[in-house]
Amino acid sequence: MAKEIASFATSNDGMILIGVDDNGQVSGIDGGLKSSVRKDMVEKVEKICSGCIKPSVTPTITFAIVNNQVVLVIRIKQGPEPLYYSTRNVPYKRNHSQARPAEPSDVVRIFSEYFGVTDKVNENDPDMLLATNLVNVVNEIKKIIDQSEQRCVNPWLEDWKYDLGECAAELRDIASSNAAINNQLADDALELADQVALVSSLREHLGSGPSRKEAIKDLSEHLNNFDSNHLSGISLSQENYKVIKEAIIVAHNKLNILVKRSNQLIEKFDYEELMKEASSIGKKILAVCYYDIDEFLNGNLAELKQISIDLDLIETSRIYSDVRPLMNQIQTKTANYSNRLSEIIAETNSIE
User: Fold this and answer.
1) What is the pLDDT of residue 109?
2) CB 103, CB 45: distance < 8 Å
3) Which residues make Cβ contacts (< 8 Å) with residue 318, sequence separation at least 6?
4) Which pLDDT belongs to residue 121?
5) Ordered structural domains, the chain, with CATH
6) How many CB atoms lie within 10 A of CB 85?
7) Which helix (DSSP H) or strand (DSSP E) does residue 175 occupy?
């Protein structure tokens, strides 16, 4: 259900009917005439929309009775954000009547349209599309590796390994393309995919930490070699820089809003919302920090990356019985980072 809701929020308004099969026959919800069953269904949907989908979604939930059968009706509006992510941080969009994971080229196109950029990826140019897909997946692996120390603990470890597995599958898809074969990088992409899959499939047991660290070190070396051999010559266009700056500005605006809301959230002890929003903003900034934009940022790339990582990792903070000190710390951190982001944005350079 999460991927269906996320895909509608990304692409267009939609409706999900629970209790109606694919042929349009009304089967109803088991026990749907009981108020307790309906209450549980509503709570389940709300939990999915607020916990599994990022950014969170607020659907309209109603029940209908057809031929004495209860049907759950979930209406989703297309959201204000360009993309919505389901479980495992996978972006989804609608493809006709189906929910489909957004390909890297889809992500670039959607964000380009969102920020008003007219110079979009030419999907008819296989070499350009190949470069775009490779840069995106390599940057995603870099991000995952950079957070290995903080996320290789429960409850984050399985998600961390799953994300690596998804990257390995994506690399294999890229390697199977004619463009990868013609550019003589299919074998290297497959070798890198094997290294990524090796780390994602490591068995966990008492004392497995050192072997995992060694495997991550080997993966980093393979990734750096692949980057140097195949991606180092790729440069960003003026429109790419425009998209990057707009992404940072939007994230900064969202951080400002969160800072203003933080007192209200602290008063309500709503630490989950505060942590989730701060982490979501960090992820948005971090997505651009693996491009070669240090000159564009006037030498501030390393600091921007650290800010985004700190924000992203807020969701991994340990929760104690008294959450107020933690919430106060997050409030102070987000306020300080908001001020520094404003300065970094003002210092960005024009790239000719």
Assistant:
1) 67
2) no
3) none
4) 47
5) 2-101 (3.30.950.30), 126-230 (no CATH), 238-346 (1.20.120)
6) 23
7) helix 157-175
Q: Sign of the C-alpha dihedral, residues 180, 183, 187, 192? A: negative
pTM metric for this prediction: 0.62
Q: Are 132 and 108 in contact (CB under 8 A)?
A: yes
Residue in this structure with the two tokens 């549980």, named with its chain if needed: 40
What DSSP character marks residue 59?
A: -
Residue from 153, 14, 15, 158 nearest 87 by CA:
158
Token output for 144: 């995952």
C-alpha distances in angstroms, 141 versus 138, 186, 227?
5, 18, 11
Q: Give the model's pLDDT for residue 171.
A: 93
Joined tokens for residue 119: 């110079």
How do residues 140-187 score in pLDDT, each as one tens digit? Answer: 899 899 888 888 877 778 878 888 888 899 899 999 999 999 999 999
pLDDT at residue 111, rounded to an integer? 65
Residue corresponding to tokens 């898809």: 173
Question: SS3 for 70?
Answer: strand
Q: Which residue positions in the chain have pLDDT lower than 50?
A: 117-121, 352
Residues 6+ apart with CB under 8 A from 237: 119
Which whole-number Å values give the CA distances from 96 to 11, 22, 23, 92, 100, in the listed order?
A: 10, 15, 17, 13, 10
- Cα distances (angstroms) measured from residue 163 to each of 148, 172, 201, 249, 279: 12, 15, 11, 27, 17
Give the span between the Cα atoms of 194 and 187, in whole angstroms. Answer: 11
User: What is the 3-state secondary structure of 75-131?
Assistant: EECCCCCCCEEEHHHEEEEEECCEEEECCHHHHHHHHHHHCCCCCCCCCCCHHHHHH
pLDDT digits (tens, 9 = 90+) for 289-337: 988 899 999 999 999 999 999 999 998 887 766 788 889 999 999 999 9
Residue 277 vs residues 217, 258, 273, 287, 348: alpha-carbon distances, Å? 31, 7, 6, 16, 25
